[in-house]
């Protein structure tokens, strides 16, 4: 089992070094607790999947997608697994991040404010 975990970690490291322009733009605003003090991590393995960004404390996942994700059955399966694991998911298109970053950030801030407490803290 250890080799599977190492494989996921290696994949996440590779993805961190290959952010898309939209992911890089959003990461600049999320990193170092710049968004209302919430901590996000990027390209984080969660179960069998790697998510773009996650605030672990609020169990909020943010995905930034290109056109290849339109109506993707794989994304639906992935989202179901993640929501069944108590995560909420926000998806934004690359062009939303590029053309309406303020609106994207406002949506994220609203979702963070509505976040339920982490299950480990109940």
UniProtKB/TrEMBL annotation:
Q: Which residues form the DUF559 domain?
A: 8-112
What superkingdom heads the lineage?
Bacteria
Statement: the UniProt record of this protein carries the keyword Methyltransferase: yes
Look up the coiled coil feature and give its residue ranges: none
Query: Which GO MF term does the entry hold, naming one?
Result: methyltransferase activity
Determine if Methyltransferase is one of this entry's keywords: yes
Keywords linked to the UniProt accession: Methyltransferase, Transferase
Give one Pfam family, short name only. DUF559
Q: Name one GO biological process term.
A: methylation
Q: Which InterPro entries match?
A: DUF559, Endonuclease_DUF559_bact, Restrct_endonuc-II-like
- Stated name of the protein: DNA methyltransferase
Lineage of producing organism? Bacteria, Pseudomonadati, Pseudomonadota, Alphaproteobacteria, Hyphomicrobiales
